[in-house]
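[Archive record]
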Amino acid sequence: MSKVAEMPSDSEADITAARLRPEQYAENFSDMLPPLDRNRAITEASRCLFCYDAPCIEACPTSINIPIFIGKIATDNARGAATTILSSNIMGGSCARVCPVEELCEQACVRNTQSGQPIKIGQLQRYATDHLFSSKNPQIFQRKPATGKKIAIVGAGPAGLSCAHGLAREGHQVVIFEARPKAGGLNEYGIAAYKVIGNFAQKEVDFILSIGGIDIHYGQALGKQITLGQLRKEYDAVFLGMGMGGVNALGIESENLKGVESAVDYIERLRQEKDLATLPVGRRVIVIGGGNTAIDIAVQTKKLGAEYVTIVYRRGAEEMSATDHEQEFAQTSGVLIKHWAQPRRLIGHQGQVTGMEFEYTQLDQNGKLMGTGDTFTLPADTVFKAIGQTFVATPLQESGRDILQLTKKGRIAVNEDGQTSLQGVWAGGDCTEGQDLTVAAVEGGKVAAIAIDRALKEKKNG
């Protein structure tokens, strides 16, 4: 039994740029959540109970002392608040913008049980860090005397930058090898443009580098311009923080039709585009996936002028990895989320995707996902794949074999200090297992920096 959705359908793709007026682009891609001003920040901070055994600290992957920094804001000491934040999370500015605080610190806030309204921790964190970055002298850290040790870091994303800053503070010389032309990782290339607007990602990178002792070599990809063996010979330690470079395929026929794109690639293009009116966008967009990337691409194409945007996910809303807050934001932005359906086949005309057929799904008696046999079809000019990224281990191989131990999921295996199975090599961030969050990547880099510094000092003393 097949059902066709009630949407306009034709065999011609309707993909074009400049669907909106110039002022609409500016409005649509302005700050998702306007920043707090001084008075509102102090008032909000005064609501905090300053708990002694604060559950919000436990909920923060980087263990920021939240009551302390909020207390400083309450006494009008924004610079001191920023110092507390950045001492635990050097990328606290971007994390204030992109962290799912509704499932982390704010969910743990005791104000939830008293008034149903948690302290706006994320917005207060942004207030403090923005205040610091806009000051005449934002540098709050001092580098220790040079140790003569050199550490190589692969990847200038949150994990790599966090590790680099931690090591530079201890006096080590750090060289980062980055494949792309800019540093920042997902903060620069992969976050929705309305979450991290303007040039903030690069401003944060500049702040991190300003401590000194950190050099970045761009256009240097592991397995191409550099090798792990080479780095191990030339440096005292190596940290791997290159994230995930692969994108999962749909695994159905005709995936190479024009108009079937990677959501990650399109978001990267959007993030780097100076004039959003030049970006072509389909009138009818389908997004396959249930994570934050699916939400980001769906909302952004809607903001670019797409008329119909539908996210299709094979399970229910509660199984989506995107937070409830993100799902609600997508729906209030005009995105339709259709659950319990899986891709069956792509429909094309003269090499261009024109639609997609889906099969309804359900769980069998054992809780296993299965198709029901009933199908429906959605017309589409563009189909975005947002079903997850994969770690590409090929650059770590020598003579066709892995030289690092990998987990069952194919990522780099590490211990609690971020150390890999290879002597002198550490790793962190999305290339290892854990929460695929910016804040978790920052913590991974920070933990590895502490372990690397300790190992180098122990080797020197030994």
Notes: Confidence is low (pLDDT under 50) at residues 1-9. The chain is about 35% helix and 20% strand. The first strand starts at residue 2 and ends at 4. Residues 438-461 form the longest helix (24 residues).
